[in-house]
Every structure is written in C-alpha cells, then in structure tokens.
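[Solved] Which block belongs to which protein?

Original post:
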Amino acid sequence: MWESAGRGGIDLERIDTILEGACILEPVVHGDDRGFFIETYNTRAFAEVGITHTFVQDNHSLSRANVLRGLHYQITHPQAKLVRVIAGEVYDVAVDIRRGSPTFGRWAGARLSADNKRMFFIPEGFAHGFYVLSETAEFLYKCSDFYDPEGERGIIWNDPDLAIDWLVPEGAKPVLSEKDRTFGTLVTRPEEDLPLYG
C-alpha cells in the first residue's frame, strides 16, 4: 500500500511491510547540479501517512564493515524508532516480538543507504538490528522514549526460528559486541520480557 503526503512541505511515500505498523518511507529528493535537498522529518507530513509519535532522543552511530548490531528492544520505556543511513549502506531488520500478534516471530528487512535515502519506521513492540554492508556506515535514529539500560533486552541475531537473512556474504562472520553475543533466542525469553500485542 502506498500513501503520500505533501501539504506539510515534504513529499513522502509509505511502503508497508508484512509487519503491522512497520514501514519504509521514501522522501522525495530535490536535486540539481549543486547537489540535493531532502526534508527528513516533518510532523504534519508524517501524521498524514499515519506516524504520530513524538520523538524525544536522536542517536548517531558509526560502524565498520561486517558489524551487526542487535537485536535490541526495551521492555520498559519501549521505543518506536525512525532510522536512516547518511553514509554507506546497511541491511536493517525489525522482528515482531509482541505476544499474541498474528505476525509474532516474523521479520521484515530493508536496505538503507546514503544513496537511496530510505527511512524505516519501527513501532514499539519490535526488536531491531542492522548489518553493515559497506566499508563503514553512519546510522541515525530517532526514538520515541529515552534509553533505559535497566529495561534493555535482546534476541540473538542468528535465532534459528527467526531465520533472518542478514545478507551476510558466504564465509563472513559478523562482528558483534559482547552483549549481543550473549542474547538468547526468542523462544527462551521469559513471557514478562516480551511486550503484549494490542
């Protein structure tokens, strides 16, 4: 399903994924021989395509090739995220971990790059991660709640039940943080550590 908005000063197209609420957003790029201009966030335009969250924190990370970050979520202070890449390319993944959801345990992914300028909106109740496809990548994300280390949880990136295709080249071994290497699978997460659907 495609929706577009333009009255707020931004031309924005929404592409829904198989996961309810998770969507790819494509802003229109205005370019000429000087370069380009895009408006990456506009409250009115985002509301027109169904995203009405208030964002309270912006984060910026730099990662090198073959780094995989995730899968992360917060059980307390759950965060919706609006993510994009301003240098390089990543494969970005959202996993539905909401107990009772019709798509529980399913995932959706999108290539995000400085070239395609796509954004990925991930609502609360999803685990999130990305894999770096380029030599380096700079990743920006807006969050709807503040980081809460006590409420942070995770799922191992290579959970066999999720069977996520991270686009890792054959023979490559993703570079993980110590924390990300120790996460368990979705099925082993205690019920109280998973958000509830609805």
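(Second protein starts here: sequence line, then its structure tokens.)
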Amino acid sequence: MIKISHLFLLLILLGWNKAQSQTIDTLIDVGDHYLHFKIVKGNGTPILFESGNGDDGSVWEDILEPIQDSTGATLITYDRAGLGKSEIDTMSINFKQEIKDLKYALKKLGFNKDLFIVSHSFGGFYSTLFSNQNKNRVKGAVYIDVTLPCNTTKEWSRNFVDTISNENWQLIKQYKVGTYYVLKNLEEISACMSDKSLASDIPVTVIAAEEPPIMKQNEADQWTDCLKTFGSLPNHRYVLAKDTGHKVWKDDPKIVIDEVTKLYKRIN
C-alpha cells in the first residue's frame, strides 16, 4: 500500500513538473523598460493574445488551458506598458512605439515568424497596426468585440476623454498608468488608425457581444453596426455571442474557445 501511495505521489509530481516546465513567465528588456510575458509552450503557429484597454495578460487566464488543449499551440500573453507586471517609460510612451516594442520583445523570445492573434476591445487597434507593420506574419485573427476605426473615431475619442473627471484621471494615473497615457493620446491614436485595416487575405472571425460596452443608444448602435460591417468583409466571419457582455469569454467561454479553435485549425 505504501509503495502504491509513493508511486501515485511521484506521478503527480512528475506531471506537475512537466506542466510547470512548459510555462515561461518572464520580463523582457525592450530598451528603456521591461515587458512581462507569459508563454505556454506548444507547437504550430503561436497564438498572441492582445488584451483590452486597462487589462493585462492575466485577463485570458481562464481560457488558455482549453484553447491549448484543443489547438496544441504555443500561447503568448503579455502586459502592455504600465499594466500588470510591465514597466513603462513615461518619457517615450506612445502607441506606435508600443507596437515596435512588442515586435522587438517577440523577436527576443524567438517568435519572429508567423502568428495567430486573438484580440479584445482596444486590443483590436494594437493587432491591426501590428499586422500593418508586419505584413504576411499574421495568418489569422479572432477579434472579440474590438475597437475599430468605424466605432472609435477621432470625434468619439475626443468626446469620451472630455467626460473623464479630474478625480478619475488621478485614479487612472495611480492604478493604471498605461491606460492613463493611452487615454491622454486617444484622439491621436484614433486619428492614426482611421485609415488602417487588416490585409484582405487574413481570415478573421469577429465575435460580437450582444451587449455593447457603450451606454448611449446611438453609440451602441454604431458599435454593433461597425462590427457587423467588418464581419461581413471578404474572408471575414461574423458571430453574435448571445447573452454576453463586452468580455464575451467571461459569460460564454465556449463560444470563444470554439471559434479560436475552428479558425486556428483552418489555417494550420
């Protein structure tokens, strides 16, 4: 009986050690600050997760294991500058530089070839610009209730930023410094992205939440129509996630896991 117990314990420990060895949790020096990455090792085209504004890479934690179980892929999450465990250089931080830093960090990690991208909300802007600047690298994308030029315009951004009180600005700067600098430059970022789009040969699945993140009805309608239009483009697919809020996978993880898996297997 003792021998069986010892064997059982040994198997558990071996399994635990194997799982631990497949996960890399690291800080990457991008020149003037460090970015935090978590990588679950696998095979095939790596999947890069791009979080929404104010979120770090941990927001994806609940769906990483089932996505790797179904795809076998290497999964890459990271914290953008000033969020989570990532540092920020407030003297040089800007939207385009963040994309350059991401590319540099991925190269240092050994990921300088093909990628599959999963984006949420404001992460859509980052993924789209990354794709524009690294043509032919992105082989497919799942966009979850994302920010697009047609729903986050320069005018909308200006009006939104104007609604933020001085008190809230101070709270954002204190607790989400990366978000603070994004919001400070939101109008400029929206202007930059106004003429940016994904290459037409990239297959994209658009997952829209049934409940848009914007409260005013005209803005909610604009958000919904924008996603539908984007999802109807050639090589794109539109999926409405019933009974879900903005973070679709929190309310319905299965639909996100299934759609990521379906498109990923199609391109691999």
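Accepted answer:
You had them paired correctly. Confirming on the second one: Residues 1-5, 7-21 have pLDDT under 50 and may be disordered.
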